[in-house]
Amino acid sequence: MTPTLVHSHLPRAGAPPRVDRCARARDWAEIQERMLVPLYEAVYQRLEVGRGTRLLDLGCGSGLALLMAASRGASVTGVEPSAPERLALARERLAPDASAGSAERPGTWLVAGPPEDAAGPETPAYTLVTAFQPIGCVAGDSEGLSALLERASPLAERGAPVVLAGWGPPERCTTSSVLRVATKLADPLRSTRSWRAACRDDLEEVAQRAGLKPDGSGRVACPFGYADMDSAVRGLLSTGLFDAAVGATDQVQVDKELTEALHPHRRHDGTVWMPNVFRYLIARTP
After folding, report:
1. 212 burial via Cβ count (<10 Å: 0-12, 13-18, 19+)
2. Which of 41, 52, 246, 286 has CA atoms 20 to 30 A from the CA of 233?
3. What is the pTM of this model?
């Protein structure tokens, strides 16, 4: 599934969640983001991403998908308006010497703003647009995505592929049962952010609302594997899906219940393993 495994939403009125966003961003980059590598790789292979590809990634986060595309020879642009902590990590990854304050590598552009900021008078049209944050596990997690895609679509060539991602059916996503902990703890204050099962046509509906034409899809196994229980807890917390629960209760309570929910997935060697299937949709710009 902000640039989290699902799209972020502005919090309702009241005290903000008590979380360390810099630490969360680092845990996302170091632990959780790699779980989606099979998804990125499957899409890039199917669309033959390489030299000549001009990629626009919406919600690029800490930039792993951009880095993988750039390593294939693509020119990459990342848009990240809502998570400055993750965007700072993307700059570290994509700059030849971030400590010296240098610019991103040639062919790379990172934007802390809306899609329109990723276009200029001399900017060539993009040949591929991606929105890799999976939708379909939290109620309302696709809100605003159609509008975002509609705004990004004019920046791409006519008929260019636009890729959306979503969680697979709950019976094929072991992590679904763990994510329900966030709903249970947050519901007293955040009833609208309830867990929901992914629906078959979630991605198609978002694409059609954005004026895009679906043109193929695929499924990818993306198991969540962690070296130990601490890494599993930190990784899942970094998604942002538990922030509302932390705001409604406290960090200690969330850590405790999340650990308990993960216990059935802990193996004899101490590692934590949860098989999941994600789905992607390829749509085309008008």
Report:
1. buried
2. 41
3. 0.87
